Amino acid sequence: MVDSFRGGWASDQNAHQASQSLSLIEFAEDHGRFHPSSIYLGAKHMVIGYDHLLFLAGVIFFLYRMKGVGIYVPLFAVGHSVTLLYGVLSETNVNAYMVDAIIGFSVIYKAMDNLGAFRRWFGFQPNTKAAVLIFGFFHGFGLATKLQDFTLSDDGLVANILAFNVGVEIGQLMALSVILIAMNFWRRSDVFPRQAFAANVLLMSAGFMLMGYQLTGLYTVS
């Protein structure tokens, strides 16, 4: 029964990952030469990357000024760009389920930070800038690990992975713009102070689901 569960879960997991990783599959199919579509595929992957977007939404949730957005978002971009490029080019491979579980934890962390839980429950406040940079490293490793699941030719790899990363940043800016516009309208409403707590509880719940999903995969598939 356990084997049946594992097989069924693995099948569902594979189908889910295949759907989410469609842009990566398309990227791998274009290997062997530089292809401008790598930029589009990177942007496409970021726009449908709900785990990255949930973390970013948490990061900007209480950033009312563009100065704050201009500090935290580049920190995240630098973090995931470094490990995306390093992971693929150095062929550093880590367990995808473990990395994705940490990415799920990054969403939990940000929701807890927004709720002031660290200071209230544990009596300390983590360095928020360092946390965004460090979790950015893990988000980049997540992308690098998924890309390494496909056969990538060395020919044109550097140009393609750089173009893919540029696309990721473009996609991130596009998604972030939409989130910021929606957040600004929401913040101006009378219901925002009352709904902010519930929204971060939902964000934390989504993080627990993402982390639990990946830890289940780590147990059943690895």
Write the layout of secondary structure elements.
Layout lengths: L1 H19 L1 H8 L7 H11 L2 H11 L5 H24 L6 H19 L2 H6 L5 H20 L9 H31 L4 H29 L2
Helix pairs in contact: 2-3, 3-9, 4-6, 4-9, 5-8, 5-9, 6-8, 6-10
Q: Order of helices and strands, N to C?
A: HHHHHHHHHH
Q: What amount of the residues lies in strands? A: under 5%
Specify Rg, calculated over alpha carbons.
Answer: 18 Å
Outline: globular
Number of helices: 10
Category from helices, strands and their pairing: mainly alpha
Note poorly predicted spans. 1-12
Number of strands: 0
Give a written overview of the molecule.
With 222 residues, this protein is an all-alpha fold. The chain has helices at residues 2-20, 22-29, 37-47, 50-60, 66-89, 96-114, 117-122, 128-147, 157-187, 192-220. Helix 6 (96-114) packs antiparallel against helix 10. The radius of gyration is 18 Å and the shape is globular.
Short description, anyone?
The chain has helices at 2-20, 22-29, 37-47, 50-60, 66-89, 96-114, 117-122, 128-147, 157-187, 192-220.
